[in-house]
Amino acid sequence: MRKTILMLALLAGISACKEEAKTHSFAIKDGNFLYDGKPVSIYSGEMHYSRIPHEYWEHRLQMVKAMGLNTVATYIFWNHHEVSPGVWDFSTGNKNLRGFIQQAAEEGLMVIIRPGPYACAEWEFGGYPWWLQQNPELVIRENNQPFLDSCEVYINKLIDQIHDLQVTRGGPIIMVQAENEFGSYVAQRKDIPLEAHRAYSHAIKDQLLAAGVEVPLFTSDGSWLFEGGSIEGALPTANGEDDVENLKKVVNEYNDGKGPYMVAEFYPGWLDHWAEEFPRVATDVVVEQMKKYLAHDVSFNFYMVHGGTNFGFTTGANYNNEHDIQPDMTSYDYDAPISEAGWPSPKYMAVREEMIKHVGYDVPDIPDTIPLISIPPVKLDVTTDLNSIISRITPVDNNHPLSFEDLNQGHGYVLYRRKFTKATEGKLEINGLRDFATVYVDGKKTGELNRYYKNYSMQLSIPAGGTLELLVENMGRINYGAEIVNNLKGIISPVTLNGEEVTGNWQMFKLPMESKPDLSAVETGNKSGRPTLYGGRFNLEETGDTFLDMRNWGKGIVFVNGYHLGRYWHVGPQQTLYLPGVWLVKGENEIVIFEQLNDVLQNSISGITTPILEELRTDAEH
């Protein structure tokens, strides 16, 4: 009862903090989380502001509050804010970190931030900027001075943005995570001595404190990985631990024999890869586990409470023994209680019902869902071959293919071109393909190479005077595991024909496609098997959320009104792209689609009111 009364008081205080800026204290002491010296439990849900249009932050945070939670957690992705070397953006659109934290305070939520610098999270390169790889002296996630120097710049920039939003300064931030799941990396990188690992992780802690973090620090690891992941002076918390007794045992071992006890990642769903089944976690399993935490005074953070969307080129990737890369889907629905589009799921309703029984404080009504619309077939009356764009680009010439990083390009595509004076045929092999290549001879598609299926070679015949073209796509950098240090993209090893390296006269055309391609004054045309850009315009009388139906398309990306919706791929299981209504306008709207494969010519696209996330078609891609 004392905790309930305190919770009511502190939530009221958080809501008023913007007006009064009254300072509070938050501490970890005597086995408890203490807010102004009184014990409090943390019931948190994680969402990432970077995966949600900023216009929807208020709605999604209200959904968290209405589920009965009192805290929101978020990763902060370094590469979301350092948009190019030395250029920082903490203010525009969904990069407005202060705006998100202040909105959480408005809704009466405490805030936990997870700044990394490594984040994982199925996000491109685990949050690291891609250009760190351009420094040959820099080694990520190690006790390496060039890397630590870069981390220090990031951490100082970040804390400068949020220093006054800590609870000690009248804001809602109560805790900050130091590093992230580092115990896993220690286990994966046994080639590095434990002392060196710990020197790095403690250096990150020291940088956070030096930058001005005043609230408690914590770490987050699997319970069997605390030896490598724990940091002196930071509370150890466990990820995915369902055994309460084991949780208490391991926390006690690394926290002077006492709590508090927290599961910093409580999984109500799971991550999703292209070409693999969409995983589900049953509602009753989630609710029963939560009841166990509540009964034993274990604080928790739902990872994720709302996943959102990997807009643009923000998806990361994993890998395993069967697949050299497992790219994450554009949808980050995660089977979370709050769906990708912000809808309350049956899981949400069941959790909410249980939380209302437990917490004692008032839980607000569920906010209305965002309006939905369907969009009738939009005529795509502009079609042009990718060559019409390439003809405007000055190529980079080199004796051998260059990686994206060598070309000073982070994302998107590169077209590699070479002309052969003599006829040749045999086995084309590109073991250093990163990640997907469509192969053309004299403009005709002859095949695909694909890192997911470990398909790095094919038979090829090139006539005298013929031209070989390789359209290579970066499908997202690995964000988890030992291979995170090997994240160059494009073609990173020799191209061979019949075992002989193909050198000399390579041309590379950079196609980052971070922004909408310009289709003005292009030569029109549409040919099967050729990479093609489609464009169209459509009028709306009302706006609302919708889902673009990509079931008949092959592989590519979509822009609507200049917003990059992300990747689609016919292998599934995702067959729709979420289009937020706030990115549409009454009146005329514009859509541009880059279709890499174009095996089937298209003439229209439509928006539907139900997402399709579980339609797998893997056979089509082998």
Provide a descriptive summary of the structure in words.
The chain is of the alpha+beta class. It has 13 helices and 36 strands. The strands form 9 sheets. Strands 4-5-8-9-10-11-12-13 form an 8-stranded parallel beta barrel, surrounded by 5 helices. It has a 6-stranded antiparallel β-sheet with strand order 18-29-19-25-22-23, with no helix packed on it. A hairpin with a 7-residue loop joins strand 14 (317-318) and strand 15. The longest helix has 18 residues, at 145-162. It is globular and about 80 Å long. The termini are far apart. The relative contact order is 0.12.
Q: State the strand order across the main sheet.
A: 4-5-8-9-10-11-12-13
Distance between the termini: 60 Å
The low-confidence parts are: 15-19
Total beta-strand segments: 36
- Tell me, rounded to a whole number, the average pLDDT: 96
Count of individual helical segments? 13
Write down the Rg: 25 Å
Residues in helices, as a percent range: 10-25%
Shape: globular
Strand-residue proportion: 25-35%
What structural category characterises the helix and strand content? alpha+beta
Largest sheet: 8 strands, parallel, barrel
